[in-house]
Amino acid sequence: MMSGPKKRRWPAVVAVVLLLLALLAYGAWYKLFRQVPTVFATDEQHFKYASIGVEASEGLPYWIWMSLPRICPEMLPGPGGYASLGTAWEPGEAMPIGFPVKTVGFERVGINCATCHTASYRKRPEDLPTYVLGAPSGRFDAQRYIRFLFACAEDPRFNADNIMKQINSVTRLSWIDRTLYRYAIIPMTKRTLLKQRETYRWMDSRPNWSVGRTDMNPFKLRVLKLHDDATVGNTDIMPLWNMNARNGMLLHSDGLSKSVEEAGISAALAAGASRDSVDVPAVLRVVKWVRQTSPPRFPFPVDASLAATGGPIFKAHCADCHSFGGARTGTAIDKSEVGTDPNRTDHWPQAAADAFNDYAKDKPWDFNGFASSDGYVALPLDGVWIRAPYLHNGSVPTLADLLEPQEKRPKVFYRGYDVYDPVRGGFVSSGPEAERVGVRYDTAVRGNSNAGHNWGTALSPEEKAALVEYMKTL
Amino acid sequence: MSRESRTRTKAGVLVDAIRESPVDRQVKKYRRALLLGLLTVIVLILAVFIARFSKDRPMTFADDREHYLYGSIGSEPGGSISNAVGGVLPPYWIFVTLPEICPEKLPGGYASLGFIYENGRDLPVGISRRFRLGFDQVGLNCASCHTGTVRETAASERMVYPGMPSHQLDLQNFFRFVLDCTLDERFTPERVLAEIERAGGSTDAFERFVYRNQLVPRTRESTLMLSRRLSPLMANPRVPEWGPGRVDTFNPYKAIQFNWNLAALPPSELIGASDFPSLWWQGPREGLQRHWDGNNTSLQERNLSASLGAGVTPVTIDHPNLERVAQWIRDLPPPEYPFPVDQAKAARGAALYAAQCTECHGDGRFRQGTVEQAKASLKGTRVGTVEPIARVATDRHRLDSYTYDFAVNQYTLYPDSEYRFHNFRKTGGYSNQPLDGIWARAPYLHNGSVPTLRDLLEPPERRPRTFYRGYDVYDQRKGGFVTTVGAEKGRRFFLYDTSLPGNGNGGHLWGTQLTDEEKDALVEYMKTL
């Protein structure tokens, strides 16, 4: 008797509960996971500001990102917020180049190719920076950036009260967003950063990357989870242009791969995208674009007749390895022959290449072309003027210095000051301003050696000057 | 509807169908009434409390001039009581009684800092009043730095000109006084409450409770934060005093908005003091490079940026009230020279002006006619463009205090809104300004290093090396304020030293090669601009 009406009520109750749960799930999905693609009309804008898939896996909630420099200012290299890390930041833009904002439930800040592949230079100290897309950043300190985030996350000041105070003083979030930030997003972000911090512990026992350099060890140790072999892989950023002309050449300073597509996708993974979050079409749009871009011309006057004398010298001493079409261009030169610091080429064993090729077997973008080499790639020198400092580890500040034997190359200099030295071919690397703005580079530190690559060092001073002048035209 | 009585025993619940007794029913009725009454009282108290603390009401003024002088742009602390944001001044009653709490720190009251009190008002020009967070609060508005006074002689009546640079206002010592006194050991809740009582304010028990536990401690807390962040500017022997009529616009902003450690900046970047500009006839200035270094062409952004300096935040700003000010100063005419002008002499000066000055500064047509006509008068000139520092050669500290790194950080202000800054630019010199009402904009050059128009026409070595600023009696012969008076009725004026960093009076050599007669004629003409 009693069970009759109850039976009839049950389905309704279940339906209501299910509906509520579904609504709740939809709400949670909408507020925490819904992805809104970042769409840009031009390839340049796409390169500078579009997501390559980092935000969903390792993106930082925008409002936390905005607050951190105001909460932990002394953990940055100096006053200036994120600008103090050497970010490229265009006039009028809400975000620096290379810091895309993508909505994954809520707005999150990631990084993309342009973070490390955008250079700046100034012709005179009083000039505003000119940004060169695709050129290696000489100023951005990627390691300092992640260390800043970790250090601030570890600090007691990183708490919901402090961060909400910052947020509430600059914007009016809805009640639901405030609640989500306070009780979910901020604590989750703190936990995630502290967890990530553990996966970067290995950095503490190695020399700093310094500005304009990275390491493939994050990939080896964080993504492939290989054992820590204590190697140092610090190396300068590569230029991203003229990739069509580089078809078939080895890429990366130590020749890890021949495929630009694979290099691009792997770089996105190294930047923090996960196997599932990496936005392959977005990366491939960048790859397609950099296949046909070309480097900017030298922005100062060139002594044409001096450069003309330098041409044949280049042909005789350099072209074999460094001209498009040169016999050895784009191949790995054994470390015993080139003689430069061996750390970088030693840090990438065959086991890493194998693990890499196995990493995405189930994905359409599966890697196949990763290899290991015992030397460094002889790179084409297009746009070499803005690729300073030189050698794979950026241990020689200018082209003129590179033509000197090791004992005459600077032992200590400053990287990260973007005023250009049009005579020596490279950035100004000494003097009070370079020291104030830049980061000290000591060639005695492990991985920083400026030895090797002795080609051209025996030329006469006149020949060297002519050769440098010629290289400015490349 | 059967009323049952239930009894719980070890055996279970016994349900007794016997109806309650009338006494039981009565007791229950009372209980329910009592509960309801209590609930109503709690709800009422809560409602009153919420109504009080969520009320946000500025004092309003029907007249636009009054609104400019006394209206609120939202620079009073706001947000919520648990998380108050913005504002640089303590609540109304604390502000009003501070000079009584620390009398020896400010013997003449706020007026002795150059604040203007008009006929018996409780607050001076430039201080707005607004009920927020449950109490009357005060804030700075545009008029505090942009309302000047002029007297013909020491015995004359003061003329008050809205929009004129507050050349008489000592803003730095005003901040110092407020910071200093709110950290003084006499600044206790008991003393504050006693002074409020003495000043004629009444407080009820609840308000006294809030003063004790919230307002006084919060004021101290905010003072500690501000003094810590600003001490590299305010208490640094290497950074010269601003003196009256000047402010360092962007360095405090670096510390307050972004929490930069100012002490880590290159010392020369910390020297940014410059004169308050005039704020009249803004309409024709849209699109010109504004601020001394010409770092922004948008009037709206300039207004929003200056408001941040006055203490608003993107959430506490009162956009409609600010817009009303913006509209008013858009058409506010520059004041006419209030003394006689020698017309014949001025006519001779006009020709000289056309040859020497018009190209960079426009001419008398700028102040005439409509906004469009004024703008048209600048056609073909370099007005509102930046003159490279090498050419103008005036003191470069102000220019260097505004950096590229700072500009990019400004682009994150007013985030996620239509107001987000995107027009600020680092420049390489100082901007050529129109000279409307230039007679009232003394002292001259961006840093106010040259006291009068006549002195500006002398080569730097013949310009005064030191002079007094802040005195408002006008020097009709030289075009500027009298610079020889060091004190008046207890107010001490500021001895400006051009040899200090940031205070250099070099550069801007145009016109210095003219003869004395020509210079006098030129000054006479400029009085008519």
Principal-axes geometry of chain B comes out as elongated
Largest sheet of chain A: 4 strands, antiparallel
Which word captures the global form of chain A? globular
Unreliable residue stretches of chain B:
none
Rg over alpha carbons of chain A: 25 Å
User: Taking Cα atoms only, what radius of gyration of chain B do you get, to the nearest Å?
Assistant: 29 Å
Helix content of chain A: 40-55%
The helix/strand class of chain B is alpha+beta
| Count of individual helical segments of chain A | 19
Major beta sheet, strand line-up of chain A: 1-3-4-2
pLDDT averaged over residues of chain B: 94
Low-confidence stretches of chain A: none
| N/C terminus separation of chain B | 91 Å
The portion of residues forming beta strands of chain A comes to: 5-15%
Task: Provide a concise account of the structure shown.
By secondary structure, chain A is of the alpha+beta class. Chain A is 41% helix and 9% strand.
Write up what this structure looks like.
The complex is a heterodimer of chains A (474) and B (529). With 474 residues, chain A is of the alpha+beta class. Chain A has helices at 3-32, 43-49, 55-58, 62-71, 113-116, 142-154, 160-170, 175-199, 217-223, 260-270, 280-292, 304-317, 319-322, 335-338, 343-346, 350-359, 399-402, 432-437, 461-471, and strands at residues 35-36, 60-61, 101-104, 106-109, 118-121, 130-133, 213-214, 235-236, 332-334, 375-377, 412-415, 420-421, 426-427, 439-442. In chain A, the strands form six sheets. Chain A has a four-stranded antiparallel beta sheet with strand order 1-3-4-2. In chain A, strands 5-6 form a two-stranded antiparallel sheet. A two-stranded antiparallel sheet of chain A has the order 7-8. Chain A starts with a helix and ends with a helix. In chain A, strand 3 and strand 4 (106-109) form a beta hairpin. Chain B is of the alpha+beta class and 529 residues long. Chain B is built from 18 helices and 19 strands. Chain B has helices at 22-54, 64-70, 92-101, 142-145, 171-182, 189-198, 205-234, 251-258, 299-310, 319-331, 343-356, 358-361, 371-376, 389-392, 397-401, 404-410, 453-456, 516-526; strands at 5-9, 12-16, 57-58, 78-80, 83-85, 127-132, 135-140, 147-150, 159-162, 246-248, 273-275, 386-388, 429-431, 466-469, 474-475, 480-481, 487-488, 491-492, 494-497. In chain B, the strands form nine sheets. A three-stranded antiparallel beta sheet of chain B has the order 3-6-7. Chain B has a two-stranded antiparallel ribbon with strand order 1-2. In chain B, strands 4-5 form a two-stranded antiparallel ribbon. The N and C termini of chain B lie far apart (91 Å). At the A-B interface, helix 4 and helix 7 of A face helix 16 of B.
